[in-house]
Amino acid sequence: MKIFVAGSTGVIGRLLIHRLVHAGHEVVGMTHRLDRKAHIQAMGAKSIVVDVFERDAVLAAVGDVRPDVIIHQLTSLSNWSIEDNARIRIEGTRNLVDAAQAAGVTQMIAQSISWAYEPGDHPAGEQVPLDIHAPLPRKTTIDGISALERIVAEIPEHVILRYGALYGPHTWYDHKGLIAEKVIQGQLPATDGITSFLHVEDAANAALLALDWPPGPVHVVDDEPAAGTEWLPVYATALQAPVPAHQSGRQRGERGASNAMARNEYGWTPLYPTWRTGFAQSLNPAPGQH
Asked: Which of 60, 63, 177, 257 is most buried, most CB within 10 Å of its CB?
């Protein structure tokens, strides 16, 4: 198939392109930075430089490529700005979907998140409503996710990958990532909030497999949702950071998510089934391990 990847040089995109090319697909990677064209081409894909906020340019690019599938992995996470991320999810997604419709593209796979649900005492299933009545600042994130999923659903064959909190190379949890820095400096307490994690390799593998999945949202998370009191000390140890302080309570919506659908119905099996071993494997890989 001919596959158009938006967000092709992000933490997932760069892994995904390699997998798509290896699987024999014709891949076009979109980036908004001219200096990343060579990197995309080195992975065996064609490259195109387009700013997703430039609507006419996006329409022209997708119209020229005429792909069979668009994979939407766009985020804006480098500055930890929820406003920038919400904008790309709303405006960027609108432009991509409009371009897809104009070019006759009927299949799209898009990145979403698994912590946008209404509060609850158990890990959420895909049928739980999104937390649309959340107060600010959480509301900014929820509005962005809600818009993204609603817009993507205009494409007949759409799969929405609700990823867990990403860890692994080039993420916030990598050695020099934002979370790592906070933990090293003792600025992140261990709370009762529940998180579902996901290694970036498992995220990329799921996006490849989703080419054959049925329409709708699906959780792509590891097997073990866990409270900060459980996972943060393990992460700190793997990072060789100080033992984190404990702080009672949890933030709204910190309930984790279940991967039962992806595992039992779609046959997805994570390479990193739990953060208990995944953190150490990611931060201190064995020789030859990537």
From this structure: 257
